[in-house]
Amino acid sequence: MDNDKYILWLLSISLRNPHKFLKYCKSAKNIFEGSDCLNKIPYISKETVAKIKSFANNEYLVRVLDNLKQSQNEKGIKFISYKNPLFPKRFNNIENPPLGIFVKGELPKEHVPSVAIIGSRETSQYGAKAAFNLAKEMAGVGINIISGMARGADANAHMGALDAQGYTVAVLGCGIDICYPPQNFGLYKDIWQHGCFISEYMPKSPATKWNFPARNRLISALCDALLVVEAGEKSGTSITVGFALDMGKEVFVVPGSIFNPKSVGTNKLIQDGATPIMTYLDIINYFKHQKSFELFFNENNKSDMLTTRPQVVLNKDEKIVYSCISYEPISIDNIIYNSGISIEKINKILFELELKGLVEKQAGARYIKNK
């Protein structure tokens, strides 16, 4: 679209508050063409006007468009401006919406519920397991999983969704063609092949610390509900929660141990009124009461499928042993002590629980819940 190229140009010159310029000049094209509107903008410096004019030429515009075309041809990256009909409607409700977004993959469908999963970058095994399993279960029944591809909870949420062959969106605080953090490169490749990336930053833009609070407002806007898996007392998740609450989104929380410092933030959110969850069905049931998702629940008779989770049948001893295991690793000696079941029987029971996918054996004969 013709609008898109001038908005792309405006985005490329990195003005501090481009919406102020659009307010007075009405369009990016007017700014590019050197309209007198620039002289009417209050508190604009001569240096800023000079900067705009230095980039307002066809040679620079062609270079910007060529770079985008190269990204499209080589990497499948698309640019969608806020004037484009394809621009997500959810972003229009942001106080300071992006001028446009760069996209790799298919944008989420409006009628499908979306859950953003966030949490600590230095997550515990409990937090990592909760993020992975909840994302996997929700993605497995068609819910969109949104996160920011950071270490810890974000990465585990994306991996859980991909493991269920579901749909996941990574909203980045850098250019789409940059993997940040670098240690998530394997995950980055998987999302590149099977998911969707969204960024408001030009390709090749590096990750900077001030990009991430802005990134978080897009995560909050894109989701219908926010799930906080694990957060310390002074956690960056509070920024995303604040955006979500301002936008009227429901905030869910995975309760944590009162002895775990990584759960102080999440437990405090529950004190402040956030909704604690026990299973993914708590979130599903919330969506089932939202009129806007009637189409989703009516498709393929999903409503019946989402009402109950499949039950695994356990005998008496298996139930006792399973109740002694949590999402933090526990040694076989402690399981024997807590369950009162003899060592002769315990190995067989643990093996059966492993076969049923309920527990996972770790190094040092330690066990952790899998569901």
Overview of this protein structure:
- The chain has 371 residues and is an alpha/beta fold.
- The protein has three domains: 2-75, no CATH class; 114-305, 3-Layer(aba) Sandwich (Rossmann fold), CATH 3.40.50; 316-369, Winged helix-like DNA-binding domain superfamily/Winged helix DNA-binding domain (Arc Repressor Mutant, subunit A, Orthogonal Bundle).
- It has 17 helices and twelve strands.
- A nine-stranded mixed beta sheet has the order 1-2-6-5-4-3-7-8-9, with helices on both faces. Strands 10-12-11 form a three-stranded antiparallel beta sheet.
- A hairpin with a 3-residue loop joins strand 11 and strand 12.
- The protein is elongated, with a radius of gyration of 24 Å.
- The chain starts with a helix and ends with a strand.
- The relative contact order is 0.09.
- The mean pLDDT is 90.
Q: With helices defined by DSSP (H or I, 4 residues minimum), what is the helix count? A: 17
Number of domains: 3
CATH architecture descriptor text of the largest domain:
3-Layer(aba) Sandwich
Rounded to an integer in angstroms, the radius of gyration calculated over CA atoms is: 24 Å
Main sheet properties: 9 strands, mixed
Instruction: Using the alpha-carbon principal axes, give the shape.
Output: elongated
User: What's the N-to-C terminus distance?
Assistant: 48 Å
CATH topology of the largest domain: Rossmann fold
User: What proportion of the residues form beta strands (DSSP E)?
Assistant: 5-15%
Strand order of the largest sheet: 1-2-6-5-4-3-7-8-9
| CATH level 1 name of the largest domain | Alpha Beta
Low-confidence stretches: none
Q: Would you tell me the overall average pLDDT?
A: 90
SSE sequence, one letter per element = HHHHHEEEHEHEHEHEHEHEHHHHEHHEE
What is the number of beta strands? 12
Helix content: 40-55%
